[in-house]
Specification:
The chain contains 3 helices and 5 strands, in the order αβββαββα. By secondary structure, it is α+β, with helices and mostly antiparallel strands. The longest helix is centred in the C-terminal third of the chain and has 36 residues, at about 155-190. Pfam families: DUF1523.
Length: about 190
């Protein structure tokens, strides 16, 4: 029975960690090489896409999505989708897709350029090539070079607060169980032995 309990706890922990990893913002330092717009028909991977542009009809299945192509300092390709999150999940309330695409187009840089322009991209989501899933870019800004390190302060504070809330609920549950439930169980089972 202990193995079933531990397996369920591990699965729940894996789901929570995966959800947080997908939803919380990440930062990449990249060199933008191209921006483009593409007609997309989300299919089986539709849970990874936003629900359409804010202000447009949710009944329309196909829509135009902006994309940003970039390369990491180690010359690995990074492709980001650029679409509004609107009022949906995750709650980034992003409504400036066209502005972000214009900023990205303005920051395009060539590989062998003497003054290559490096940018930081704040994004959420995963890149799953087999399912054509792309992380969604939230913000772009120029940085001084490819070796810039960005500390994710929001993620650190959020995870500390989340852990503190979890710990507070756990402690209160254990106290409630010891003070209210266990005495009643002992009282009911006294004559069973």
């Amino acid at each position: 029975m202990i193995y079933v309990k531990r397996t369920l706890q591990a699965l729940i922990l894996l789901l929570v960690v995966s959800f947080l990893h997908y939803t919380l913002p990440h930062y990449d330092v990249v060199r933008i090489t191209d921006t483009y717009e593409k007609r997309v028909d989300p299919g089986s991977n539709s849970i990874f896409w936003s629900s359409g542009d804010a202000g447009s009809s949710s009944e329309v299945a196909s829509r135009d999505v902006f994309f940003i192509q970039a390369f990491s300092p180690k010359d690995k390709p990074r492709i980001y989708r650029n679409e509004d999150t609107g009022w949906g999940w995750p709650p980034y309330m992003k409504f400036d897709t066209a502005n972000l695409q214009a900023e990205a187009s303005d920051l395009i840089s060539k590989k062998n350029a003497e003054n290559a322009q490096w940018v930081a991209v704040k994004h959420y989501g995963w890149r799953i090539e087999m399912m054509s899933v792309y992380p969604n870019a939230l913000k772009i800004w120029p940085v001084s070079g490819p070796d810039v390190r960005i500390i994710p302060w929001f993620n650190i504070v959020f995870l500390i607060v989340l852990f503190a809330l979890f710990w507070a609920v756990r402690v209160r549950w254990k106290r409630f169980r010891e003070n209210k439930i266990n005495p009643k169980v002992d009282e009911w089972t006294d004559g069973w032995g």
